[in-house]
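Private note to self, pasted from the team thread so I don't lose it. Backbone tokens:
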């Protein structure tokens, strides 16, 4: 008994030392996900400017968001499968190149139709980045730190949001929204470093010869128990994306249009909300590693449902800015756990497929919901449409209670 305890303590002590490889995977994946936040928020903050250029309606703006998310769904499925077959690092670099190319082309779009197509194509790259990066980190970090590590990756998204807000306000507002999108070509330079400085995770290398002729999607539905888990996780990811995109894409538009407040107020709101999100993500990752995935999610989801209903009945800008950080803490704090949560339910030969397919199918469902938000915003108001998000968070809590098992401390297979 004492020998076993000693061996366990020694193993934990050794795994407590973060290796250079783990740091590199964490950095690369965090930067990759920051691109996702940068892209999404540039679109959201530039909505009113783009609408003026192309004379767009609210429904047109909703379609832009949906096109990006539809591309992410297809890209997530495609690149998730490819990453299981050909390697996480290699395919990860492909996704960044695709994103950079078509985001840059958005800057020179002559009309709404071409802009819509480029948004869809850039979404293909975005769809691959999340799951591959999260898989890379999950497979390289120890189980007792896994959720905290993936929460740092999720934090990259918030960094991207802040960079987007600053880019639009200091570049886009002065020189036009096209220059803000032109900045999207810069991440292509990151690819060279990624390919040179990273190797594939050892757990994947041990299986790579077996994976070349396999398509792993069927592993997501291998048994009734796994099928139920996949359905539950898809519901959770759909709600997470529905709430997040609803909040971050439409709230700046509500400030600028319905509340008739100066455009610069969107920057203050974005920064306040993102600070809350960042704190929530870091704390949520720690909570998941300490107390478990399911209780952490259920508590955050219930608080989100209550606070959102209250929030979107407010009209005072100071209240919106200050309470925005609280909303961000709970609504998006949960992003800190999804990378580890998804990784722990599936085996190595299907892990990247599961991460990308489940999260991006959820993102696609959320994309369709943006059209619903646009319709309700047109018929009623944006604040009315967004208040309905409360019910979605209750649905996700039910999924965690009945469909999603606990995986805290689980070793990857």
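Design output:
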């Amino acid at each position: 008994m004492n020998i076993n305890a000693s061996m366990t303590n020694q193993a934990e002590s050794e795994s407590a030392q973060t290796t250079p490889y783990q740091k590199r995977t964490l950095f690369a994946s965090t930067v990759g996900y920051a691109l996702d936040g940068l892209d999404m928020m540039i679109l959201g903050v530039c909505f009113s400017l783009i609408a003026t250029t192309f004379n767009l309606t609210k429904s047109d703006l909703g379609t832009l968001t949906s096109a990006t998310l539809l591309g992410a769904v297809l890209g997530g499925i495609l690149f998730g499968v490819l990453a299981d077959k050909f390697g996480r690092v290699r395919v990860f670099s492909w996704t960044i190149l695709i994103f950079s190319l078509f985001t840059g082309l958005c800057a020179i779009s002559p009309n709404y139709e071409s802009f819509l197509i480029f948004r869809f194509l850039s979404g293909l790259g975005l769809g691959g980045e999340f799951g591959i990066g999260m898989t890379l980190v999950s497979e390289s970090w120890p189980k007792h730190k896994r959720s905290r590590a993936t929460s740092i990756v999720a934090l990259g998204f918030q960094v991207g949001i802040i960079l987007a807000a600053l880019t639009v306000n200091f570049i886009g507002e002065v020189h036009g929204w096209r220059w803000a999108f032109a900045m999207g070509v810069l991440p292509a330079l990151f690819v060279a470093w990624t390919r040179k400085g990273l190797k594939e995770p050892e757990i994947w290398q041990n299986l790579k010869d077996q994976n070349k002729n396999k398509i792993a999607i069927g592993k997501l539905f291998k048994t009734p128990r796994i099928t139920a888990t996949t359905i539950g996780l898809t519901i959770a990811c759909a709600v997470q994306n529905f709430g997040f995109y609803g909040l971050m894409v439409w709230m700046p538009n509500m400030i600028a249009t319905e509340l008739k407040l100066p455009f610069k107020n969107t920057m203050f709101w974005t920064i306040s909300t993102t600070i809350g999100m960042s704190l929530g993500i870091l704390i949520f990752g720690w909570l998941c590693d300490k107390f478990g995935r399911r209780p952490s999610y259920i508590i955050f989801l219930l608080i989100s449902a209550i606070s959102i209903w209250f929030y979107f009945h407010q009209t005072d800008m100071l209240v919106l800015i200050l309470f925005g950080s609280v909303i961000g803490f709970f609504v998006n704090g949960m992003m800190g756990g999804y990378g580890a949560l998804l990784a722990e339910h599936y085996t190595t030969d299907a892990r990247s497929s599961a991460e990308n397919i489940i999260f991006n199918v959820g993102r696609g469902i959320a994309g369709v919901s943006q059209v619903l938000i646009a319709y309700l915003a047109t018929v009623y108001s944006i604040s009315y449409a967004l208040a309905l998000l409360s019910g979605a968070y209750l649905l996700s809590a039910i999924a965690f209670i009945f469909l999603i098992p606990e995986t805290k401390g689980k070793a990857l297979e």
